[in-house]
Specification:
- By secondary structure, the chain is α+β, with helices and mostly antiparallel strands.
- The protein has 8 helices and 13 strands.
- A hairpin with a 6-residue loop joins strand 5 (86-91) and strand 6.
- Helix 1 packs across helix 7, helix 6 (230-240) crosses helix 7 (253-275) and helix 7 (253-275) packs across helix 8 (283-295).
- The longest helix is centred in the C-terminal third of the chain and has 23 residues, at 253-275.
- The two termini are 29 Å apart.
- The structure holds a DNA duplex.
DNA sequence: ACCGGTCCCTGTTAGC
DNA sequence: TGCTAACAGGGACCGG
């Protein structure tokens, strides 16, 4: 599923493939994919038709395309969250599909080669006259140059909407890639992420310590710092040699800073690996799964040796999910987690 | 106001 | 072999 580095790769791809284009048609094939849009599917399509895509912005795992200002419509944006299986594919006129975004669902939680069926049907797709639709195509945007932007989402946790824009609280750009100090209303409560130069790292450290919860829960709290999911939380905690069950109140400033640095580091590395050869077909899919195959120290590695000390990685239930730790590098707190 | 638990959804896989 | 249950994931939402 797309984590922050993958979403950033998508943002970058959108910035280079669809900016400046105008939406000439919108086809909503699954209403559920626009369930967060207030006016429903018809209004969703109406608000986008005729609008120009002006900037591609990301904050945490939220992604949005700023729409042109003008009479007859508000100050708004096309907002996307890819959920756990969302993809945005640009299908250029006369070319096979360009994979703008990773990756077949489940590649990260079940490491292995890319799905041999999921992707090749895109390669085999003929030109615009006879496009073969992806089986999980949910929404299609027809663009004015004959290309299309496809929202494909197997598990439908992702969603699209066209919300109004609000000014940012700190006056800084709304996110990476934003020329303006605005954010979509549904993103207003989402904190900046670790790749955002406007993030106040020291303030995040204080905010984490002021919480009355456990460290991993705080790392996953998108109102403190955004973009850290279950995978990166576990990897960052392992790098920082901290147990996610540590009560935040017992943490030193330096410990919180260390785990935040580690999270930023893991994400930057993933971005560097996944984003290098973006334009080549399927590189994201292969690159992403390759990165995770080789680079995950603990996540999903139950029973395999810790890369640092060789102790078997341990799996514990956590909030209806799993946590992976090295029992030696990451000692559990004295008081067992609640 | 804050915090933890639940649910949304689908395809794959484990287990009976 | 064929079925069901468990599982993965982020975030909105709700109840304490």
């Amino acid at each position: 599923m797309p984590e922050l580095p993958e979403v950033e790769t998508v943002r970058d791809g959108l910035a280079r493939h669809v900016l400046g284009r105008t939406v000439v048609g919108v086809e909503v094939r699954r209403d559920y994919s626009v369930r967060r849009h207030d006016g429903g599917p018809v209004d969703f399509a109406a608000r986008l038709t005729g609008r120009r895509l002006e900037a591609a912005v990301r904050r945490g795992k939220f992604l949005w395309l700023l729409l042109d200002a003008g009479p007859g419509h508000g100050d708004d944006a096309l907002l996307a969250h890819l959920g756990m299986s969302g993809q945005l594919l640009v299908r250029g006129p006369g070319r096979p599909a360009t994979v703008v975004v990773t990756g077949p669902a489940g590649r990260l939680d079940r490491p292995g080669p890319p799905d041999p069926v999921d992707v090749p049907d895109l390669v085999a797709a003929p030109g615009p006259e006879g496009w073969v639709d992806h089986p999980h195509l949910r929404v299609r945007f027809a663009l004015d140059d004959g290309s299309a932007l496809d929202f494909v989402d197997q598990r439908t946790f992702g969603h699209l909407s066209v919300p109004d824009l609000l000014p940012t609280a700190d006056g800084a750009p709304g996110g990476l890639g934003s020329p303006r100090a605005v954010v979509p209303a549904p993103v207003a409560h989402i904190a900046r992420d670790l790749l955002d130069p406007a993030l106040d790292r020291a303030a995040v450290v204080d905010a984490v310590r002021s919480r009355r919860t456990e460290l991993k829960r705080a790392l996953l709290d998108q109102t403190l710092v955004s973009g850290i999911g279950n995978i990166y939380a576990d990897e960052a905690l392992w790098r920082a040699r901290l147990h996610g069950g540590r009560p935040t109140a017992t943490l030193r400033r330096a410990e919180v800073a260390r785990v935040l640095d580690a999270a930023a580091e893991v994400m930057s590395e993933a971005l560097a690996q996944g984003g290098t050869s973006f334009d080549a077909l399927y590189v994201d899919v292969n690159g992403a799964s390759g990165y995770f195959d080789r680079s995950l120290a603990v996540y999903g590695q139950e029973g395999r040796p810790c890369p640092r000390c060789g102790t078997p990685v341990r799996r514990d239930a956590f909030a209806n999910r799993s946590s992976f730790t090295c029992p030696r590098c990451q000692p559990r707190p004295r008081r067992p987690r609640a």
